[in-house]
Amino acid sequence: MKTITFTINGEKETRDVSESKTLLNFIREDLHLTGTKEGCGEGECGACTIILNGKAVHSCMMLAVEIDGCDVETVEVMSKDGNLDILQEKFIEHNAVQCGFCTPGMLMSARALLLSNPNPTVDEIKTALEGNICRCTGYKQIIEAVSDAAKGGKYE
Amino acid sequence: MNKKFTSVGVKTKRVDAKAKVTGAAQYVDDIQFPGTLYAKVFRSTEPHAEIVSIDLEKAKKLPGVKAVICGKDFPYHTGLYHVDQYMFAMEKVRYVGEPVAAVAATSLEIAEKALKLIKVKYKKLKANYDPIKGMKKDAPLIHPDLHKYFSVPSINPKPHSNIPNHFKIRKGDPAKAFKKAHKIIENRFKVPQIQHVPLETHGAIAKTDLSGKITVWSSCQSPFTVRYLLAHCFKKQLKDFRIIAPFVGGGFGCKAGVNIEPITVALSMKCLGKPVKLILTREEEMYTIVVRQACHIRIKSGVDKNGKIIAQENEYIWDCGAYAGYGVNIVRAAGYSICGAYNIPNIKGDSIGVYTNRPVGSAFRGFGMSEIHWAIEQQMDMIAIEMGIDAVEFRKLNTLKPGSTTATCQVVTKHTGNMIACIEETAKNIGWGKKKKAGKNNYRAVGIALAQKAPAMPNNATSAAVVKLNEFGGAEVLFSGMEIGQGVMTAMGQIAAETLGISMDKVNVVGLPDTDYSPYEWQTVASRITFSCGNAVKNAAQDAIDQVKKIAAKVFECKAKDIVVQDGIIKYGKKTLPLEQVCMGYQYEDGHTIGGAIIGRGHFTAKDCINCDPKTGYSPKPVANWTYGAQAVDVEVNGETGELTIHNVSCTYDIGKVINPQGADGQAYGGIVQGMGAGIMEALVVDEKTGNVMNPSFVDYKVPTIKDMPLSMTSSFIETQQLDGPYGARGVGEHTMIPTPAAIANAVYYATGVRIQELPVTAEKVLKGLEELGKNK
């Protein structure tokens, strides 16, 4: 066991965690933030994507102890006071959601993109979301949703 | 047709979307109970072997292990259409990955450790991976007890063979017609096994409480069928089981019927009072869960001088894999749909399922239609080219039209659907006949393919719904069509709102079934839910509104039939009453009350469907309805590498009334991309020395990413009303992926002259074809 201190969705936390526990399992089982999903456990599908210090990462490929001192965001951060984030609104408006299992990871990758690049091109959106597999939507509406959310370049 | 709709046909945001974008939506693995035990399955490492011995003793002794079980503890069978599988392998294993034993322990790590302590001795048997060999008379039998298995009446197993179902079409006199043919064209095609790849792997939690009641939370498409099959399997009553279905992270057919639930339940029976959770790893999902069947196809067509097909032989030899409990019905579906969307007077059709030692074949979006259309739609192009007829014109000449008869001799009417309109709209949208500009060293062309599909369900498959009006003049809508991503919750809400005369925001769509509380639904498969469950919801809403009108008629002192309900207001001439004043009974000024809480009930079963004749396939109505469609694909082939760029895909489906235009578009785009995956990327590879699946991960089994998708996609819909559909609707969920692979192959041929007859159309195969033609750059 190791004691770690980190910021999760804007709140500072200190927890004891087993050295062998993945960050994904820590988020889901210890923090009970089940919006983050496991699709493969091998860093290939993107369902477990979270934002670590501003960058989108696969939480299944990291150990929980690695977030000591870090800033962590999961999908739950996006609708903090009951109000939806513009990306979430646009995902709904453009029907970018079907089964919804890839959606939290997809939103995290999109959020990380817009935070670092507020005016992405379609190719840049595709590159940012390339690691997020969606088996339902055909991706078209996801690109439309992200492009629409980025309009005006003021995402935060 | 002039009625103005307020909810049906209106672009409507998904009612489940807010839960899904916030992370609030719960999937089975998100349900966390204290005291949960974790399950793991011990799986066969042999493709075909006798089980000599199973030693569970060491595993049982490991601290933290709560149960270790195998077939002798639960010697029970499962199977939907054909009961050929034990829950755990008993005397034999028949594929690598087959469950042999299972463990429940206090942690996943302990369960995994326990698996390593289980020892199974096998006596190897010769494995067969080739259905053609498996059909031969002297082929070793994979299921020597086939003649003893129970099958539903529409299935025809061949005793003492490897054939669990053989469906025949004998229409007209093909032998005579072939003699008259101007040209005879015969070709062979192949389809490999592929994986469904839902983003959420299979998962279930089972708890047997101390009173014996068994509750199962499962990622499944069909909670009531899970309950029914579990009760059969464990020889218990339905009331002993309660199935709760949370959101499902993609199904595509692989979560139909029953899957890992029996193993989870069996473990829970040995750990009373404790929830047992079994979540498959992606690797297990890839090689132990059901797959789409492989198929070997031969089509021989006879055409007259005008290009009309006058005779055809269609032979589909299906690789069912090790078990065919579900696959036998795909064999049947391919049988009654044997020649696709074409009007052919003389047909000899054989759809034959064969057991092999590959992973188990089962339902996959399209249910056999994607596989047979891969062949049919290339064959149509090959005939058109041979006859010098344009591919679009050839299809318009030969496709089903009012007055045509299908393979089973069903007569097509103007209400069945309008394929000509689908073809013309698709051709227009893709720019058929216009030359497309290719990059330097590249080739580019457009290909087209058609699709037809009917719901392959038992003729008595039924749907039920309940609509409860509430104090605010809104409604709770209960049904058990499963939300697997296709948007059923939204569509059912729209149908209810429309029928009740209230707005969507007053409808509480209670879409996640609990078999103890929800109305019955057979299965969420076959693109049948909008049609069947939609009718049930419409009938339930109508029942509720009829009750409202009956009470209001007393208040207004008029006849119920003269009352309308619009925007939540009950109207009779100039008199009005808010709906909420009647939903719980109407109270007069003096306090006396008439009526009470209103609950509408509805059900639907398709009428007059008749099983096909086992000798000829004849049936005047084998299925509830047909959905027709066409798809065209604009493909550029890289002359140096053989790689394909899909520039544009255009599709048109005749789905009757479009309930949610946004949802229908979503089905179209998603189907196209899944079809594209099957068309150019996907194949499950089995090593024929070991029986192992060689690509059980996303690294080796590629599915389309956002960078692979077509550069452009357009969808359109024709709305030929389905006379018995809710507001005239019929299904579209599966159809959108059916024509894509053949349309791509046809485009590749027009672009390069390379004809690929075995899926997928990989760059490697295209390049080899270019080299053979001397056209590589």
CATH class of the largest domain in chain A: Alpha Beta
CATH class of the largest domain in chain B: Alpha Beta
Shape, per Cα inertia axes of chain B: globular
What is CATH's topology name of the largest domain in chain A? Ubiquitin-like (UB roll)
Report Rg of chain B: 27 Å
Structural class of chain B: alpha+beta
End-to-end Cα distance of chain A: 36 Å
Helix content of chain A: 25-40%
**CATH fold topology of the largest domain in chain B:** Aldehyde Oxidoreductase, domain 4
Total individual domains of chain A: 2
Number of domains of chain B: 3
How is the biggest beta sheet of chain B arranged?
7 strands, mixed
Described by strand count, sense and barrel closure, the largest sheet of chain A is:
5 strands, mixed
Mean pLDDT of chain A: 97
CATH superfamily of the largest domain in chain A: Beta-grasp domain
How much of the sequence of chain B is in beta strands?
25-35%
Secondary-structure element order of chain A, as H and E? EEHEEEHHHH
Number of strands of chain B: 34
Widest sheet: strand ordering of chain A? 2-1-5-3-4
Described by its quaternary structure, the protein is heterodimer
